[in-house]
Amino acid sequence: MAQSDITSTNQQGTGRPLIASDKVEGTAVYDPQGSKIGSINRLMIERISGKVVYAVMSFGGFLGLGTDEHTIPWDKLNYDTTVGGYRTDITKEQLEGAPTFYRDSDYNWSDRERERGLYDYWRVPPYWDSRP
Q1: DSSP 30-82
Q2: Is the terminal CB of the chain with fewer CB neighbours within 10 Å at N or C?
């Protein structure tokens, strides 16, 4: 299921097609068995199209200490009104081995090869290949 922007199907069924980014931040993410595996820290939005392309997710740690962050393609998340969070087919083990994108201010977000590695890992097409 393609979820290219904030009005995508991951928000349908809530009665509200749009949601503010600050309401997404902190939202829980659940694995296929329904266990909470982390929460969304921030969204990465493509400047030109305005579409959400990544969710940066934190997991592990205790009270914010020792947490890890991973960049997840937005297409890997589906909003589930029954749990008030996002469901994914991602497991904790997959997160632990996932490539990371750091918050460094000098990170080159136009490095398509590194991004392609991320999409290959998660087995979804890159967002720039699925544009209309």
Answers
A1: E-TTS-EEEEEEEEEE-TTT--EEEEEEEESSBTTBS-EEEEEEGGG-EEETT
A2: C
- The model's pLDDT over 3-20, given as tens digits with 9 standing for 90+, comes to 333 333 344 445 667 788
With residue 29 as reference, give the H or E element that holds it: strand 28-30
The structure's pTM equals 0.75
* Residue length of the chain: 132
* CA–CA–CA angle 31, 32, 38 (5° rounding): 5
Query: For residue 115, which phi and psi values (nearest 5 degrees)?
Result: -65, -40
> Hey, what CATH class is 9-124 in?
mainly beta
Backbone angles phi, psi at 70, to 5 degrees: -135, 145
**Which residues neighbour 126 within 8 Å (Cβ) at sequence distance 6 or greater?**
112, 115, 116, 119
